[in-house]
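ok trying this again, last paste got cut off
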Amino acid sequence: MNGENSLRLAIDIGGTFTDLVLETPRKEYVSHKLLTNHDNPELSILAGIDIVLKKANRSPSELSLIVHGTTLATNALIQRRGAKVAFLTTQGHIDTLAIAREERFEQYDINIDKARPLVPRYLRLPITERLTRDGEIFIGLKTSSILKALKTIKKEGAESIAVGYLHSYINPKHELETREILKHHRPDLDVSISSEVAPEIREYERFSTTVCNAYVQPLMAKYLGRIKAGLEKKDIFSPFLLITSGGGLTTLETARKFPIRLVESGPAGGAILASKLSSQLGSDASLSFDMGGTTAKLCLINAGEPRLSRQFEVDRSYRFKKGSGLPLKIPVIEMLEIGAGGGSIAYVDKISRIKVGPESAGSNPGPASYNLGGSDPTVTDADLFQGKMVAENFPFALNIESAKKAINKHISEKLGIPDIESALGVAEVVDENMASAARAHAAEFGLDLGARDLIAFGGAAPIHAARLGEKLRARRILIPKNAAVGSALGFLLAAASYEVVRSRHMNLHELNFDLINKIYEDMSEEALAIVTKAAPKAMLREVRQISMRYAGQGHELNIKIPNEIFSDNHTQILRDLFEIEYSRVYGHKLQKTKIEILSWMLTLFEDKNNLFPASKSNKTESHAEPISRQKFYNSQTKEFIEAPVYERTMIENVCSVKGPALIAEEQTTTVVPMGFTCYLDSLGNIVLEKSDA
């Protein structure tokens, strides 16, 4: 539909809350939060749609688009709740998933826990076939070996199949033939082939990604099917798109085929929101800070663009250490996710230290103050007890006495300190956990966190933003409009996109220009077929990259290249682009060393530039009147005070508000501590800054 009957709806399922944001053609937003139903998450979606449409006084027939992001695939991998998978691979290589990279991610710990393969050894089945490294057939595919594997698959009750052969990224012939045979005999089984899921060099990463895709495919297909059926029962037939880990929108069909691309779909929305704001405000460096009920997500944004990666690890088994999880070769927004949310559980460890997370009370049983059966103290309980939350704005009633009781029993009594000291300790520990994680994350890329804008959103982020910004020496702290549902709002800013990659090893001085041009022509056609389904009439843009390294090195750099037909002069162009980036990253370049290219990448995306509307503020008033006053613990003077509470809409025409103060809005509260002032900028963001006085 068009005009006034054109509503767009975003839905974000998190570990604690399901967020919905309804956008009208006039860029007005109606939002709602409700607890996530972990057993049947689609029920939260369907119930939330009814509520948000009723709040907006709109009907289901007015919906023109639904955009959805979910952590369901991630949770299935972490909790090992996916399908029983059989893995078919080249004979002699069934242990690739267990051998992994043959390296120790923690050199001095003899008891390290490696990521356990998703497929047990008895379901890793050898297939007689072999390709050379150039993709030529060395041993033909033997159908008898596939039929033998099918007997084991039937006997063991496998529900999904992953197929990964050596060098199939160059020549997919054997994998395609295998899928045809499997589908002929067992059309009921889902089949994922590595030449489609992750057609890139490096067997372990390619096989791991394909197995993970097969592992979550039946679960995601059923889930998406239930959502579609539920929407149709409500007479909702609008396009239904999903956001990928790389921040692009894709169709239901593509999501069913490649559900592994959805593993970080929820957090990606928040990074998009922060990057759009950063770009529109002209900020050269920002840090996205998304703190919800279960986790906190941090993303570095430079020149209005989030950091992007082609590799991601899920289910890290050893203290979140890199290398201890399952590697995925997928396009992803590079971000750090830690167990630090409103529902993160606080406790006292064996040496009498307050610890927070990573375990979370989630939506069931929830923090003690929810009165839903939770008895452990959480970050939300500590914030409520300190008076940092305007409870009337929370999605449902909170019980401060239950929060105080949990803090007293599990922390104060064990440490022999007052309850308020315990609550302060919980807040300080979780803030320092997030600050330490952010510093370490930035250090991995050689970046400094000082003099960055901190863009904070999510239900808990505005409560903790000032203290975190202080720890990280943020230039300023911004709280966007509708901050409590920031990730869902980011979904509405996303563009349809799709990335395609092909691994073809070439030496820079021996480039096959005809082959390169053919590769990019084929990739462009593949991406176009998918993107046009998600955005049929959109203007499209194309970005090309290649992965390059000096000959003999083990890792590559991704280099952005011109969108041009390749010819002789590109040899020097590619060398210059690579050496500029290599010098930027490593501080030098190697002389008289050959350069090689491993992979060729193309991203096609919808060319649209959503802008946030300017604020209508005139800033004519010198002060605002608080709507109320609330008991608030001032940590600097170490006393409870009556802090003024302002409605966010009331400070639009105010030059500034001095802390201590609370800014209330739907579903969250912005804390303005003593020593801070806040005001609204040109886009309606709350801006927190340290006072000069």
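PB: full thing came through this time. The radius of gyration is 26 Å.
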